[in-house]
């Protein structure tokens, strides 16, 4: 899938965006012309076990909560290729190989599309947020349970990059540089950023030479606590602007392109 983030904005069309995470599944109706939520966000705990049928049931609950009759866009925390799940690190392994488009369309009775969660956040930031109007190579990184990534070249999304799994010192980078790793180790923001995030970003920038790196995920709300430690990273760094709404917005926008 190639997605052009800089294409002209849609007229006022509302789509239900749903963001599936390892701990919660949240959704809201989105005006895809403005990127604004047009209803209050609603969240349900991710079911356990997080099997395809159980997760689909929660997605259907969200559709019923909003009494939704139109299109539905869904994010998924793993590789998604033509609607088929390729990886599911934080959900049940039985998701791998599932046609998620078909699964969620059947569960909701509504036309549903699915894309990687970080890619969805990137679509939102490129359309409405920190990457709006930016040409060249732009990389969004979401720091949370792991590290998600979304790569854009002149507004075109290169899907499923999964740069959180780049190897540093024999381990996935997200083992030490994710937000969850900071919390597990009880590190200060400055220690985490200086010793782990700075090294990771320097490695990524050496590989990709992006003109802009957008720092997303929940940590974007605390950017003032750690961005000063990243001043030596040789490219422009900006915190994400859509915060926790980015996945919902990006999923909704993506649904209008299928």
From TrEMBL:
Q: Which SUPFAM superfamilies match?
A: Actin-like ATPase domain
Q: Which Pfam families does this one have?
A: ROK
InterPro entries xrefs: ATPase_NBD, ROK
Instruction: Give the record's family classification.
Output: Belongs to the ROK (NagC/XylR) family.
What is the name of this protein? Polyphosphate glucokinase
Organism whose genome encodes this protein: Actinocatenispora thailandica
